[in-house]
Amino acid sequence: MLSSKVIHVDGVFLGTAIMTGSLNTLRFYATHESVRALHNACMSDFGALYAQVKSLFNRSRMLTPQPA
Q1: Given 30, 35, 65, 66, which residue has the most CB atoms within 10 angstroms?
Q2: Gyration radius of the chain's alpha carbons
Q3: Which class for 67: exposed (0-12), middle (13-18), buried (19 or more C-beta within 10 A)?
């Protein structure tokens, strides 16, 4: 691991983007259940990775019933 960046949306910690040594690739380490589908996903652009994680998280919030 060369470096990492925390990914959170609306104060919820979703995981970490880890910079690997191979071709400056970012690997996503998911810590929140709503974004597990992206665990170990690799991308070269942090902005694109963040956008995918945020989108999946927001979709899961819309589908999850909120307590009354």
Answers
A1: 35
A2: 13
A3: exposed
